[in-house]
Amino acid sequence: MVDVRFREVVIDCADPRTLAVFWATFTGYARRTWREDWATIGTPDESMIIGFQQVPEGKTVKNRVHLDFFATDEEATALEIEALGASRLWVSENPDDPFVVLADPEGNEFCIVREG
After folding, report:
1. Which residues 6+ apart lie within 8 Å of 32 measured at CB?
2. What's the whole-model pTM score?
3. Which residues contact 31 (CB under 8 A, 6 or more apart)?
4. d(CA 68, CA 101)
5. What is the pLDDT along the chain (116 residues), one digit of tens a residue?
6. Which of 20, 43, 82, 105 gives 39 a disulfide partner, CB atoms 3.0 to 4.6 angstroms apart?
7. CA quadruple 98, 103, 108, 114: dihedral, nearest 10
């Protein structure tokens, strides 16, 4: 067995610092690395880090990978994140699997899932 641990996810974007501020605002993650072409935010113990990498091309298709964030009230939480600049893409109609799909200001998708 290979000895690896998942610790960081990287999001391609045009403006790493602006996008990092957006994600830090709703996750509560602290600012770590802060360059024009690369920014990171993470948990206090650095067990989870989100990196933002500047790339020249814009997003053109649906993400193949996305992040799920859990909240007691997915709808209220989604509304708060929308007020920060997210866009609502879709809402699950399945009462056994309630979640809201959002996109950050550069179009990267993520979900707010009801915890429990």
Report:
1. 39, 40, 41, 42, 46, 49
2. 0.92
3. 20, 24, 39, 40, 41
4. 9
5. 899 999 999 999 999 999 999 999 999 999 999 999 999 999 999 999 999 999 998 888 888 899 999 999 999 999 999 999 999 999 999 999 999 999 999 999 999 999 97
6. 20
7. -20
